[in-house]
């Protein structure tokens, strides 16, 4: 408390902070970015390890023999899928029943707010089929889920085949202590959303679905399988879920441990772990992997069918089979054995996965950075904002007579003899106006699509995206027109108070966002210094992401991609409740408009 | 002055009415920061349902309001929204009148002091002008009515007690009502007494019989009305069930639902055999400061009331943001202390950040499952520390202003250089 109560020391400290403000901010920024980039450097990261006792110490033996038969089932499924032109519900029900499962179906339908041009769907109708293998050794209080999507075209047939093969094999084993639910979902995430809402009796997005007839216990963990070829070269683990949520790290550890044991190549973000961390290429490989994870997380959308499980406290991940040109191949039996092993370990769980980390970044599948290591990088960047705010505060309060005016803002002309004193009212106006613009950006695009389609030669999707961009740009013109009306405009104090408010607003906003989804904040603040325009950031992120995935795009393609990303963002919000779009429209954009205002007030 | 007040009331009522109509009302009434087990509307509804079935509303472990409240709402059930808005408005008007009255007194005292030349010449900057004070009551009312914290607790239909001062009997009755609602306002008895003594020009002197006579008279009125209230509840309900269910519940803190206070986490972690001891320590904390503060501030009962309300809001067992808003409403009254405040920037930043972090960490803990209670409690702790800093800062500023008023604003050391005041 000495620092807070001793006036001399306070004065010295504040004097130092204001005098050296710019250099300290520079140092903080450099240190923050350097810290973040250092996270990908192997000696600074930790090796992944299994924290959960129940999964670590016990041995299991994988014996799944029937890979070929599973692939045959997959081919049969493909034939029936082609014949019915969609989900072969009857065949699936019959096949699952023949394998001794309790089989149920769930119908769902959903009308999208506007047509989704990427996946070409608008009115969605479908059926989920799931079979429950009841646990022979325990009361039915807990469950595990294995899901495979029924995708259009020729994809994921093998995944369904392996799912059915595993169901048959699991049925004959006696050691299951948890119900195992085998789910084939149609229309990927929409079907998954319907099934999860039905299972948990919630309805958050206004979807129509028929209630589930049968349930297992509370779901402990889920894996989603995507496999489109008979043999694979490697398996890719996808962790990023809705709103940047990640499953417990132990799930990733489990996957890695079994890949090592069985001898399957495993990747995350499509990148193999490498051992040459001391070379430049090795380091840049790790940075690429980590940045891909950060960007995927920042997009706030589920990157696999598992993504929606995370909302219900269910640890889930997607496993994708990749078939590339490497000579060494893994067959379906091995993939089956891998899954069998993972389920047997999950079956041993005594409580929910909670021992390991929930907030982490992975520069490779074998290494991770926990929240304690990456938060300081953000802290250093947030410190800049606080230092700026302190500096402004000191500047504002240095003439003591004015400070008292500041504290009791004039509410009417009687007590406001000085026209220069900026009141709360003059700050309130831009705050309210920019938030109203934000509300318009949030609500108008979807509401006004019909109007736009009538008057302009565009499709609904384009109408929504272009309206959003139009409102966004129109917001930039607002300060031009509003600032003339205001009393605080033009004065030194006026813009300083506004800047103080804006800086504090941004600091609180970033702090809160960083806690929920670190990745959303860091690239924006760290890589784009000064420019925190959300629109430009998104555009930049799109190009950067393509660059990282080693599929660079031209400007034209990039722009189209940008438009589709915006429409996907709005759709994700409407369909699954992703928070990125409301966050950007209602909070980040108004905050940025405040900074834009300052330019005009100066 | 009546017109702006009326306008303010209309704006406040409009905001509340608009919020009641939106889906936000449901969301807000579920927030733990806003409702406590003591005052949640849901629980009142449950209590009413039990009452309708001729079962004692206290028979479950859900309802903890006082019997008078439940009978009040028994008749006003259909007008609940209006009742809450009305209560807020009445509180605001009462605050407005009370502060106006107080300002008149301060001004009169200041005039006497000036005429008697008791104030050093260089302190004229510290003298308060009538124009500056003219708007303070309105600002107080505005701070109360437009404070987002007040609005959310009104929308959540919290049943926080309110407090006003008029004549001696009236003040005793209201104080008894407030105490009857939640025990803690008991500590406000002292400032109220001091305030009344000051109005009647009775010096606070233990050797004077008139002081003792008046004190006893006041205490008698207070305890008498409290007794009447409790007996009335007994006759309404026909049993003494409500005593353990309301006061036992407040004092022994059996419900550890997270809130913005300090109790829940601490007692969730506590070993059972220490529980009683720490319960006493925590509860005494609320009452403990009354005596030293009243000795120090015996000339300034209204500031003492402010301090007491703030301390209650910080240390009570089930605090909500509604309690916070009550003492925050008093902040404009102490506008003139602003130049002596030291940490106001830090404190307001922390309070702001904490208010934003509460829902975020709650989401992470309860919905996302990735954080845990430690995160939430850390913010609670920070919030309380910021509040304590705020209150102690105001206390320090008040004392310092008094010091300057007697010793002159620009203090000199013995060698003639400028001196600084250091608090150690």
Automatic annotation (TrEMBL), chain A:
Xref: InterPro entries: Gaa1
Entry GO CC: GPI-anchor transamidase complex
Keywords: Membrane, Transmembrane, Transmembrane helix
Superkingdom classification of source: Eukaryota
Transmembrane domains' residue ranges: 20-41, 371-390, 500-520, 579-601
A Pfam family it matches: Gaa1
One record GO biological process: GPI anchor biosynthetic process
Keyword Plastid: no
Protein's name in the database: Glycosylphosphatidylinositol anchor attachment 1
Species of the source: Gadus morhua
Gene transcribed to yield this protein: gpaa1
From TrEMBL, chain B:
An individual GO BP term: attachment of GPI anchor to protein
GO cellular component terms given for this protein: GPI-anchor transamidase complex
Transmembrane segments: 82-99, 143-166, 172-197, 218-240, 246-267, 274-295, 340-362, 374-396
Membrane association type: Multi-pass membrane protein
InterPro entries noted in UniProt: PIG-U
Keywords: Endoplasmic reticulum, GPI-anchor biosynthesis, Membrane, Signal, Transmembrane, Transmembrane helix
Pathway(s) of this molecule: Glycolipid biosynthesis; glycosylphosphatidylinositol-anchor biosynthesis
Subcellular compartments: Endoplasmic reticulum membrane
Signal peptide interval: 1-17
Family: Belongs to the PIGU family.
Protein's UniProt name: Phosphatidylinositol glycan anchor biosynthesis class U protein
Organism: Gadus morhua (Atlantic cod)
């Amino acid at each position: 408390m000495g620092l807070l109560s001793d006036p001399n020391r306070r004065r010295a400290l504040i004097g130092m902070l204001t005098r050296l403000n710019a250099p300290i901010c520079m140092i903080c920024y450099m240190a923050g970015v350097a810290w973040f980039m250092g996270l990908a450097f192997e000696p600074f990261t930790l090796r992944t390890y299994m924290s959960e006792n129940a999964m670590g110490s016990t041995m299991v033996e994988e014996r799944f023999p029937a890979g070929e038969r599973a692939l045959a089932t997959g081919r049969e499924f493909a034939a029936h899928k082609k014949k019915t032109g969609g989900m072969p519900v009857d065949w699936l029900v019959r096949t699952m029943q023949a394998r001794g499962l309790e089989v149920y179906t769930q119908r769902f339908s959903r009308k999208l707010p506007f047509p989704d041009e990427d996946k070409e769907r608008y009115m969605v109708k479908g059926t989920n089929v799931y079979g429950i293998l009841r646990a022979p050794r325990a009361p039915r209080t807990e469950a595990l889920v294995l899901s495979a999507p029924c995708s259009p075209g020729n994809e994921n047939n093998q995944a369904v085949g392996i799912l059915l093969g595993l169901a048959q094999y699991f049925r004959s084993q006696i050691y299951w202590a948890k119900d195992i639910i085998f789910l084939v979902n149609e229309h990927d995430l929409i079907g998954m959303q319907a099934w999860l809402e039905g299972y948990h009796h919630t309805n958050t997005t206004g979807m129509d679905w028929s209630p589930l007839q049968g349930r297992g216990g509370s779901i402990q963990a889920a894996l989603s399988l995507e496999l489109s070829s008979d043999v694979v070269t490697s398996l890719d683990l996808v962790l990023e879920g809705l709103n940047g949520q990640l499953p417990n790290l132990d799930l990733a550890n489990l996957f890695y441990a079994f890949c090592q044991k069985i001898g399957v190549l495993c990747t995350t973000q499509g990148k193999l772990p490498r051992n040459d961390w001391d070379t430049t290429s090795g380091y840049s490989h790790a940075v690429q992997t980590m940045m891909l994870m950060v960007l995927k997380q920042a997009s706030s959308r589920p990157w696999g069918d598992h993504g929606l499980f995370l909302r219900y406290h269910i640890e889930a991940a997607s496993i994708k089979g990749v078939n590339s040109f490497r000579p060494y191949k893994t067959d379906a039996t091995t993939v089956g054995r891998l899954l069998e092993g993972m389920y047997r370990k999950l079956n041993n769980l005594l409580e929910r996965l909670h021992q390991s980390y929930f907030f982490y970044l992975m520069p490779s599948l074998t290494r991770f950075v926990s929240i304690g290591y990456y938060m300081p990088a953000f802290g250093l960047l947030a410190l800049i904002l606080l230092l700026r705010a302190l500096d402004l505060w000191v500047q504002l309060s240095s003439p003591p007579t004015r400070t008292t005016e500041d504290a009791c803002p004039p509410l009417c002309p009687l007590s406001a003899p000085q026209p220069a004193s900026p009141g709360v009212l003059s700050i309130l106006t831009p705050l309210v106006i920019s938030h109203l613009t934000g509300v318009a950006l949030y609500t108008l695009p979807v509401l006004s699509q019909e109007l736009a389609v009538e008057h302009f030669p565009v499709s609904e999707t384009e109408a929504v995206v272009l309206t959003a961009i139009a409102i966004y740009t129109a917001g930039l013109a607002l300060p031009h027109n509003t600032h003339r009306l205001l009393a605080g405009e033009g004065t030194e104090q006026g813009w300083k108070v506004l800047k103080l408010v804006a800086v504090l607003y941004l600091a609180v906003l970033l702090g809160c966002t960083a806690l929920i989804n670190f990745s959303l904040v860091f690239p924006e603040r760290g890589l784009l210094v000064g420019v925190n325009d959300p629109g430009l950031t998104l555009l930049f992120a799109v190009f950067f992401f393509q660059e990282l995935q080693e599929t660079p795009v031209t400007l034209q393609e990039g722009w189209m991609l940008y438009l589709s990303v915006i429409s996907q963002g709005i759709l994700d919000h409407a369909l699954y409740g992703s928070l990125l779009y409301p966050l950007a429209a209602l909070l980040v954009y108004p905050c940025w408009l405040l900074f834009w205002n300052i330019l005009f007030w100066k | 002055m009546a017109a702006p007040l009326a306008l303010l009331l209309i704006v406040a009522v409009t905001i509340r009415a608009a919020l009641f109509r939106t889906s936000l009302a449901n969301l807000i009434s579920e927030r733990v920061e806003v409702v406590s087990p003591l005052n949640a509307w849901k629980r009142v509804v449950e209590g009413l349902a039990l009452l309708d079935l001729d079962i004692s509303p206290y028979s479950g472990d859900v309802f903890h309001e006082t019997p008078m409240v439940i009978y009040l709402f028994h008749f006003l059930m259909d007008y609940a929204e209006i009742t809450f808005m009305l209560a807020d408005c009445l509180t605001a008007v009462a605050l407005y009148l009370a502060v106006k009255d107080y300002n008149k007194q301060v001004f009169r005292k200041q005039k006497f002091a000036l005429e008697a030349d008791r104030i050093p010449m260089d302190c004229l900057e510290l003298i308060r002008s009538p124009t500056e004070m003219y708007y303070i009551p309105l600002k107080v009312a505005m701070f109360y009515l437009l404070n987002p914290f007040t609005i959310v607790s009104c929308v959540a239909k919290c049943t926080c007690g309110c407090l006003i001062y008029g004549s001696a009997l009236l003040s005793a009755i209201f104080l008894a009502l407030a105490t009857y609602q939640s025990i803690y306002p008991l500590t406000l008895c002292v400032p109220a007494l001091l305030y009344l003594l000051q109005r009647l020009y009775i010096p606070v002197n233990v050797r004077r019989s008139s002081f003792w006579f008046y004190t006893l008279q006041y205490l008698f009125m207070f305890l008498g009305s409290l007794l009447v209230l409790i007996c009335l509840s007994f006759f309404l309900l026909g049993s003494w069930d409500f005593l353990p269910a309301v006061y036992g519940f407040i004092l022994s803190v059996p419900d550890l639902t997270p809130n913005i206070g300090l109790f829940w986490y601490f007692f969730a972690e506590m070993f059972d055999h220490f529980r009683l001891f720490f319960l006493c320590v925590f509860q005494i904390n609320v009452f403990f400061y009354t005596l030293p503060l009243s000795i120090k501030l015996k000339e300034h009962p209204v500031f003492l009331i402010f301090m007491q309300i703030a301390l209650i809001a910080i240390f009570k067992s089930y605090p909500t943001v509604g309690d916070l808003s009550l003492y925050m409403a008093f902040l404009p009254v102490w506008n003139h202390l602003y130049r002596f405040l030291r940490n106001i920037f830090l404190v307001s930043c922390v309070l702001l950040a904490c208010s934003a972090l509460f829902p975020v960490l709650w989401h992470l803990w309860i919905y996302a499952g990735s954080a845990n209670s430690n995160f939430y409690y850390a913010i609670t702790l920070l919030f309380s520390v910021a509040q304590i800093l705020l209150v102690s800062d105001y206390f320090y500023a008040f004392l310092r202003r008094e010091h300057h008023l007697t010793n002159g604003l620009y203090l000199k050391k013995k060698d003639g250089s400028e001196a600084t005041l250091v608090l150690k």
